[in-house]
Design goal:
alpha+beta; Peroxidase, domain 1; 2 domains; four-stranded mixed beta sheet; 8 helices; 4 strands; elongated
C-alpha cells in the first residue's frame, strides 16, 4: 500500500510537469521505454534494486542506457528517482504514469487472453465492440495462453468476461461431481 502511494505521487509529479511543458506524449513514450527495459532486463531491475550499488553508479548506468533516447525532463526525473533512493519502484512508477496518461487521453486498456493469435480483423472487431460499450478508445493487450484451449478471456477495468473452453469444462466437471441420482437400483 505504501509503495503504491509512492508510485502514484512520483508518477503524478512527472505527469504534472509533462502537462505544464506540453510533453505528455513524449513522457508517455519515455515511460513506455523505461517499463519495457525493466521488463526485458532482469539484470537492470536487479541493479536498480540493489542497496549495495551506489546511486552515482546507478545514475551513470541510466544515462548510458537511456540518455540518448529520453527527453531531458524524463531523464532528469529518472535521475531524481535514483537520488531519492526510489529506484526499486522505477517500473511501477512508469506503469502509474502510463495509467494516468491513458486516463487523461480517455483510453481504456483491455487484456485479451486467447489460445491462439488472432487475425487483425478479429482484433479490430474486439476493439470496436469494447469501445462502443465503454464509450472510450480501447487499447488491446493480447496474451496467448494455450491452456485455455479455445475461446477468450477479456478483462477491462475490474470486469472480466470468461468465455474460454477450459472454464466451461471446469463448470461441467463440477456439475458432474454433484451426483443427483441415488445408487440403489
Amino acid at each position: 500500500m505504501k509503495d503504491s502511494r509512492i508510485n502514484g505521487r512520483y508518477a503524478k509529479a512527472l505527469f504534472d510537469i509533462a502537462i505544464e511543458q506540453q510533453i505528455t506524449d513524449v513522457a508517455f513514450q519515455d515511460m513506455q521505454l523505461v517499463k519495457n527495459i525493466c521488463i526485458a532486463s532482469k539484470e537492470f531491475e536487479s541493479l536498480m534494486s540493489s542497496p549495495i550499488i551506489k546511486t552515482d553508479k546507478k545514475q551513470a548506468v541510466v544515462k548510458e542506457i537511456m540518455g540518448n533516447q529520453l527527453n531531458k525532463v524524463s531523464l532528469s526525473f529518472l535521475l531524481l528517482i535514483l537520488k531519492k533512493r526510489r529506484e526499486a519502484n522505477l517500473r511501477n512508477i512508469a506503469l502509474e504514469y502510463i495509467e494516468m496518461y491513458n486516463e487523461y487521453k480517455g483510453i481504456k486498456t483491455a487484456y485479451l487472453k486467447t489460445a491462439i493469435e488472432l487475425d487483425q480483423p478479429t482484433k479490430t472487431e474486439f476493439i470496436n465492440l469494447l469501445s462502443s460499450q465503454s464509450n472510450k478508445k480501447v487499447e488491446l493487450l493480447e496474451d496467448i495462453n494455450p491452456s485455455i484451449i479455445g475461446g477468450f478471456i477479456v478483462t477491462i477495468d475490474d470486469k472480466q468476461a470468461d468465455n474460454s473452453i477450459s472454464t466451461k469444462i471446469q463448470r461441467l466437471r463440477k456439475e458432474f461431481d454433484k451426483n443427483i441420482y441415488e445408487k440403489g437400483f
